[in-house]
């Protein structure tokens, strides 16, 4: 009989869920990635009440990781400790609802629930404290002080003071493209590159395609790389938008640093999410310079590991696992492994 794993680590974002099952010594027994589109109508091991659609893959991912570990997912709990870093855990009311949902599935004996920014933070530093900033479709930030104090932002859109991320940047890029064409704004490369991304010639054609629902407006988020390329090529309009995004990232992280009184520490600021896959050096230079004005010893790190590594490390922190266990997790949980498991699951 397989001994029950010590930790089930979950990182659940808006488009995918990564899950790992591991022993106390950091040995990874099972790991998988499930995207929302992978469900194909399947609802394996998912409770009837699912808080949000983007959490639907959680049950499927946990069941697959359990299968790899030789554990029956239907006979919970499958792990002693569950660390769930989930998008949508923004307000205390969200936390209470999500905890009830987690417990209803009996995945673990006890659970830790955090926003997905905490996974980004822990994955990008060797310390259990620092600042994590996520900039993907939207933006969010959380921070942990050396003494364990926590601060975070609600990050539920404009109504909570948010600005930025692909959803915002893509819409602004299209806005500038239209105004460049019709004369209400300055001329910009975006007038040509924005519609060209969708196979169109003019911004007006893109506007009409979205208005008549031939193109989903949500796809404007795909334009963020187009915006960054224009900025790199010297387009002033695009550069101003990119600079505003950098300044917003600095503002969030600096506010978190001040709240936790970490200005004099060599605090790690971990940047995770699709926007940080940009190759624009000026963008990152502006972020680092802005943060150094607040915390001169700050260390800015762009996350390269999967955030589920952070969820796993948070579990090991809770269990007071030795340092070799942390190293073992980092070596085993890679994007390549998670991607390979996704492919194998589709082939079965």
Report on this model:
- α9 (281-292) links the parallel β9 (268-272) and β10 (299-302).
- The chain starts with 6 loop residues before the first strand and ends with a helix.
- The chain has twelve helices and ten strands.
- Mean pLDDT is 91; it is low at 41-48.
- It is of the alpha/beta class and 348 residues long.
- α4 (166-182) runs antiparallel to α8.
Topology:
Elements: E1 7-12, E2 16-22, E3 28-35, H1 56-69, E4 79-86, H2 92-105, E5 108-115, H3 116-123, E6 130-135, E7 139-144, E8 150-152, H4 166-182, H5 190-197, H6 203-211, H7 224-232, H8 236-259, E9 268-272, H9 281-292, E10 299-302, H10 308-318, H11 323-332, H12 335-347
Parallel strand pairs: 1-4, 4-5, 6-9, 9-10
Antiparallel strand pairs: 1-2, 2-3, 6-7, 7-8
Helical residue percent?
A: 40-55%
Oligomer: single chain
How much is the radius of gyration in Å?
21 Å
CATH class (first level) name of the largest domain: Alpha Beta
How does the overall form come out from the CA principal axes? globular
User: What is the first-to-last residue Cα distance?
Assistant: 25 Å
Relative strand content: 15-25%
Give, in spatial order, the strands making up the sheet with the most strands: 3-2-1-4-5
Overall strand count: 10
Largest sheet: 5 strands, mixed
The CATH topology of the largest domain is given as: Nucleotidyltransferase, domain 5
Tally of helical segments:
12
Question: Which architecture of the largest domain per CATH?
Answer: 2-Layer Sandwich
């Amino acid at each position: 009989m397989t001994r029950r794993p010590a930790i089930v680590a979950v990182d659940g974002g808006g488009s995918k869920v990564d899950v790992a099952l591991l022993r106390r010594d950091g040995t990874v027994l099972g790991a998988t990635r499930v995207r929302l589109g992978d469900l194909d109508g399947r609802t394996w091991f998912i409770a009837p009440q699912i808080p949000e659609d983007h959490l639907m893959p959680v049950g499927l991912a946990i069941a697959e990781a359990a299968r790899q570990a030789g554990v029956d997912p239907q006979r919970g709990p499958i792990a002693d400790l569950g660390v769930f870093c989930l998008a949508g855990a923004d307000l205390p009311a969200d936390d209470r609802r999500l905890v009830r949902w987690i417990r209803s599935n009996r995945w673990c004996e006890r659970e830790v629930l955090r926003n997905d920014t905490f996974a980004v933070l822990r994955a990008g530093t060797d310390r259990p404290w620092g600042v994590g900033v996520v900039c993907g479709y939207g933006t969010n930030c959380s921070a942990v002080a050396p003494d364990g104090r926590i601060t975070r932002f609600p990050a539920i859109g404009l109504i909570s003071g948010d600005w930025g991320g692909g959803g915002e940047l893509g819409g602004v890029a299209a806005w500038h493209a239209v105004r460049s064409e019709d004369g209400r704004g300055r001329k910009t490369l975006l007038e040509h590159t924005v519609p060209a991304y969708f196979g169109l010639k003019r911004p007006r054609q893109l506007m009409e395609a979205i208005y008549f629902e031939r193109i989903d407006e949500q796809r404007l988020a795909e334009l963020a790389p187009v915006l960054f390329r224009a900025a790199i090529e010297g387009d002033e309009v695009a550069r101003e938008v990119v600079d505003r995004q950098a300044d917003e990232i600095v503002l969030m992280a600096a506010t978190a640093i001040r709240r936790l009184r970490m200005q004099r520490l060599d605090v790690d600021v971990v940047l995770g999410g699709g926007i940080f896959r940009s190759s624009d050096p000026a963008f990152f230079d502006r972020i680092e310079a802005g943060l150094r004005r607040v915390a001169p010893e700050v260390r800015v790190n762009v996350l390269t590991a999967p955030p589920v590594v952070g969820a796993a490390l948070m579990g090991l922190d809770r269990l007071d696992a030795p340092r070799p266990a942390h190293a073992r997790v980092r070596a085993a949980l890679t994007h390549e492994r998670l991607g390979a498991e996704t492919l194998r699951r589709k082939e079965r």
